[in-house]
UniProtKB/TrEMBL annotation:
Biological process per Gene Ontology, one example term: very long-chain fatty acid biosynthetic process
Entry EC no(s): 4.2.1.134
Protein name: Very-long-chain (3R)-3-hydroxyacyl-CoA dehydratase
Domain of life: Eukaryota
Family (UniProt): Belongs to the very long-chain fatty acids dehydratase HACD family.
């Protein structure tokens, strides 16, 4: 990777890490003062901007700047854009304000992304410095552990919360369809409801693909650590 690409990716990942960590702090402060019902009014618009920035990751994958698989990148970014723009922004009362799962979804997202982007910054910085991530370095070891272990909990929490946000919004769609029987809006909300049914049907297999991808990445890292330990043992002998 050229130094120009590396510095660009460090800047992008650093900005994203700061944005998601800022979101995490805002949510925690809002929760402590007002409870989950205030989350959307406090950070809803901010979430839209931060998540939309991730569209660049699709471009990174398409152009080969990063080696991330296009399909999994596209699936994750598209599903989140659908949630923040197509679900929450259109049905904020049902999907977010009256829904504690909106807050749990954002907490899972923000912790996951703050860790992920910081890990990428650290990895790229190491590459520029002519070294690899090392388990002997405390920061490297911590970020690597967080990156490849927290998803065991955060992915199910995030995915489950996403499903509940869609489900709550579907209730709003059904109510609006009933209130506009015989009008064009009746058909529009009915179509949107069935669209969400289709989305939910593909959510489980789609989520499993993302989860197993992370499991595969974790195994690669574990193999790398094992090989490094064997080399270290030989040197000691």
């Amino acid at each position: 990777m050229s130094s120009a690409k590396a510095w660009y990716l460090i800047a992008y990942n650093g900005l994203s890490a700061s944005a998601w960590f800022s979101l995490l702090l805002q949510i925690l402060i809002s929760l402590s003062e007002y409870g989950y019902t205030s989350t959307y009014t406090k950070v809803g618009i901010y979430v839209q901007w931060v998540q939309t920035l991730a569209v660049l990751e699709i471009l990174h994958s398409v152009t080969g700047i990063v080696r991330a698989p296009l399909f999994t990148t596209l699936m994750q970014v598209a599903s989140r854009l659908f949630l923040v723009h197509g679900i929450v922004a259109q049905f904020p009362q049902e999907a977010a304000i009256e829904n504690p799962f909106y807050t749990s979804m954002l907490l899972a997202w923000s912790v996951t992304e703050a860790v992920r982007y910081n890990f990428f910054v650290r990895t790229l910085s190491a590459q520029i410095g002519g070294r690899e991530m090392s388990r002997d370095d405390g920061v490297d070891a911590l970020l690597t552990w967080l990156r490849y272990n927290t998803f065991f909990v955060l992915y199910p929490v995030g995915i489950g919360s996403e499903i509940m946000c869609i489900w709550r919004a579907m209730g709003g769609m059904k109510s609006l369809a009933r209130g506009n029987v015989g009008t064009s809006e009746d058909g529009m909300y009915g179509l949107a409801w069935w669209g969400c049914v289709i989305v939910l049907c593909v959510y489980v297999p789609g989520s499993w693909i993302l989860y197993t991808y992370m499991m595969a990445q974790r195994r690669k890292v574990a193999k790398g650590d094992s090989s490094a330990n064997k080399k270290r043992s030989k040197k000691i002998r």
